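Form 7-S
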Amino acid sequence: MIKLYDLNTMSLEEVLDRTEEETVDVSDIVAQIIQTVRKDGDQALLEYAKKFDKAELSNLVVTQEEIDEALAEIDDYFIETLKQARDNIQLYHEKQLRTGYRIEKEDGIVLGQKVTPLARVGVYVPGGTASYPSSVLMNVIPAKIAGVGEIVMVTPPDKRGKVAAPILAAATVAGVTKIVKTGGAQAVAALAYGTESVPKVDKIVGPGNAFVATAKRMVFGQVDIDMIAGPSEILVLADGTCNPRYVAADLLSQAEHDKMAQAVLVTDSAELAAQVAEELEVQLSQLPREEIARTSIENRGKIIIAGSLEQAVEAANAIAPEHLELCVDDPFTLLPLVKNAGSIFLGKHTPEAMGDYFAGTNHILPTGGTARFSSPLGVDDFVKKSSYLYYTPEALAKVKDRVADFAEREGLHAHGKSVTIRFED
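Output:
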């Protein structure tokens, strides 16, 4: 049964005690894998595929023939769905594209910013029992919009040495440049340092298990990474007019991800709180992934009763959830009050699943409260920015003494000299 809390009798601090995620230290194993991949390249990837994926591979790179076979397995309806989702994601993310700027001041001074796409990006796509073609779209499309020249996707093969057909279909629709059959920490190492089949990239994006997350931490600095994602989270903020069946379904949409996922309802209605708690039990028994969802709900789920919708928003801001649903009649009134959330779903007919698959916003979001200071994956994650400046001799002459004085006050004589020397002749 989900736990109930009442802000009328408890403090926000008591209610919002965030359970620490249970982690396993795999650092030594991952460090060894990285070292082996750096030393042995493709041979290490082939051996790890045999060891971890039980796959005997003759080649690491997915061939066009394999892609064609996969596309033949996928029905036209799903291909069309992928294309419509791609178009929605593209429409949303194109608005994020930066072009840089230039400021021309008096006396020939020019300042500006140059925006340059990363040359090559690696996208990690998990394999295993489930495949997530939606994550392919969410990672690849912003990179394409940014102008990334080459996108290398890595994903573990199944025991037959094949990549799931929906993954290959999504990669084709999104425009992936190269697909390599490797997963785990070894895939991250290959992207970071390069092998015979895997080109070295500038940045690695995409979710993974503890081995993948640890490897991303270890190679950061050699390459950039997106984020270290934790378990999924949803917070539904609902008033008393909401349908409890809808609210329960939305909470379970994240609880079924992972036993460590967190589903929270914050409401100003004690009656709705009780109804949702009952409805959760009904719907849990109907889920194919009941064991996972039930563990999530019972161990990490919460229903919080607030004294008002404003207090409910305060609680939501303190939690800073990955997904926030504002299930009220006029969500745009509450929207300005929201300060901390990865993605915000407005109204009673915008379930979180719309953002996961189709609407166009990105579903790669900050978790674990990091929405307090970080943002969803977007076009900005695939570009770098350089500043530039230009001074004429006359412009430099006007400020040379101030710059030299500034440098001297910091004890950096050569800095000042590099300015004044231009006026000594």
